Amino acid sequence: MDILRIILAILLPPLGVFLQVGFGLHFWINILLTLLGYIPGIIHAVWVIVKYR
Q: Transmembrane region positions (predicted)?
């Protein structure tokens, strides 16, 4: 399941974070990072998915 979340995190970072932690602080941080730059959003999303297994 983590592989699917990582693929979704690459395509749409907030969706990958949402599937892992829901509407928490990390979700809103990821939306902000994705709006500021797509790559920081991807890095944060993958980090959240790996950290909160």
A: 7-25, 31-50
How high does pLDDT run on average in the chain? 95
Give dist(CA 41, CA 30) in Å, integer: 5
Q: Which H or E run contains 30?
A: helix 25-36
Nearest to 10 by CA among 37, 35, 45, 36: 45
Cβ–Cβ under 8 Å, residues 5 and 49: yes
Q: Quick one: DSSP state of residue 52?
A: T
For 22, the token pair is: 């829901």
Domain boundary assignment for the chain:
2-51
